[in-house]
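Data availability (excerpt). The following record was deposited with the supplementary files.
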Amino acid sequence: MKLVGFEADKKLHLGLVQGDTVIDLQAVDPKLPYDLAEILASTNGDLSSLADLAKKAPASAHRPLKGLKFALPVAKPGKIVCLGLNYMEHVKEGRYADNVPKFPTYFLRVISSLTPHNAPMIRPQASDTFDYEAELALIVGKRAKHLTLQNAYSCIAGWSSFNDGSVREWQKRTTQWDIGKNFDKTGGFGPYFVSADDVPAGGKGLKIECRLNGQVMQSDNTDNMMFPVAETLVDLTKAITLEPGDLIITGTPSGVGQARKPPVFMKNGDTCEIEIEGVGLLSNPIVDEKI
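Predicted structure:
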């Protein structure tokens, strides 16, 4: 199942993608929540009712995918937990090459830092060190605490593509990374939610790539995560209770702009694309912040 958030008539909608068309689920049932997190919470992660609803859609509920004004796949994610340093080659290209992490490295994002497919990622006035990071995003489907390796995947509702846009200068100002990861509208997210049953278990074996203005900057495979999804979920839920609609952003491969010689940072007029095999192509123009 492939779902998409979009805007129509100045309202947020949720749609089910079928080929080149989208079934507007609110056009079938106006009472249906537009926020996927709310639906996941009410169904304990079971989205089969949406497929059933789509079967009842009249012709008027079908919209072309082309030209759609995309919104976030999850309109109101609760927690946005991100992993850093999760691909060894990325660790080696940075300042932690001599201090390889033994445990997952977590930081948090806030909702105001997110922006949907085709919408601008904003390069802030505060710094010109705006970097790209291709990442696989996990969407939590049901409440989870103290997961085990045997049941870790049970909380996964689906997957999406993510660009963890990072303002490197601010990220490095202190030992805590959060400020450099949370400038307004710096994190691209979408366009799709792809259900877990349509992706290899644990998001394994997926090609992940970043292209800046058509040039490949990052290319790797999710098999190369240092801390795979199951192990991360087990570790994380020892501390944090995951809830429906929470996001876990699983880290970026090597090839980031700050590690290049000379460095390559995103600038006004650029287009950055994140493509993950079987999950989708996320594209965002880069636009300078205006005050």
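Summary of structural features: The longest strand covers residues 156-164.
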